[in-house]
């Protein structure tokens, strides 16, 4: 297990914008050490020739045709627009 001191744990917490009480830093340092130890253990595994997996069960992802549609509810979508005209979003002109 890798050793992480409380100063390093405090610095990591600060960088992550996580407020950690001073009395909780030793436990956090120990937890960080355990995580790094696990990562070191994983680096020892020989993965040469092993294909990456998407799932533990071999299966193909469901696919659909890539077709352009209006979503089947243009009125509902346009109801959220501050300004809609002739079935489209209306925006102010930005180029003269």
TrEMBL record:
Chemical reaction(s) catalysed: L-glutamyl-tRNA(Gln) + L-glutamine + ATP + H2O = L-glutaminyl-tRNA(Gln) + L-glutamate + ADP + phosphate + H(+); L-aspartyl-tRNA(Asn) + L-glutamine + ATP + H2O = L-asparaginyl-tRNA(Asn) + L-glutamate + ADP + phosphate + 2 H(+)
Function recorded in the entry: Allows the formation of correctly charged Asn-tRNA(Asn) or Gln-tRNA(Gln) through the transamidation of misacylated Asp-tRNA(Asn) or Glu-tRNA(Gln) in organisms which lack either or both of asparaginyl-tRNA or glutaminyl-tRNA synthetases. The reaction takes place in the presence of glutamine and ATP through an activated phospho-Asp-tRNA(Asn) or phospho-Glu-tRNA(Gln).
Keyword check for ATP-binding: yes
Organism, scientific name: Roseivivax halodurans JCM 10272
Lineage, uppermost ranks: Bacteria, Pseudomonadati, Pseudomonadota, Alphaproteobacteria, Rhodobacterales
One of the GO biological process terms: regulation of translational fidelity
Keyword RNA-binding listed: no
Subunit structure of this chain's protein: Heterotrimer of A, B and C subunits.
Name of this chain's protein: Aspartyl/glutamyl-tRNA(Asn/Gln) amidotransferase subunit C
EC number(s) on file: 6.3.5.-
Family indicated by similarity: Belongs to the GatC family.
